[in-house]
Write a structure and sequence with these properties.
- The protein has about 70 residues and is mainly alpha-helical.
- Helix content is about 65%, strand content about 0%.
- The chain is built from three helices and no strands.
- Helix 2 (about 25-35) runs antiparallel to helix 3 (about 40-65).
């Protein structure tokens, strides 16, 4: 996926993420405070947070009956 497509895909998710699994401003601030000196670690931590939230959403979906 090209850089432009990545940015478009991320921006296209605005208002589509369940607020229960979205990154809150206070969470982002904590990550920034911890990793302000290392932007690569900041991005990596943010990715892991998103992955963790996604796994939480998947587990919830798996517990929810289809009917």
């Amino acid at each position: 996926m090209s850089r432009k497509n990545i940015i478009e895909a991320v921006n296209g998710m605005t208002d589509k993420i369940n607020p229960h699994y979205d990154m809150r401003v206070m969470d982002l601030r904590k990550i920034i405070e911890e990793y302000a000196q290392d932007p690569i670690e900041l991005v990596s931590c943010s990715f892991r947070y998103g992955y963790m939230q996604g796994m939480k959403a998947v587990r919830t979906e798996m517990k929810t009956p289809l009917c």
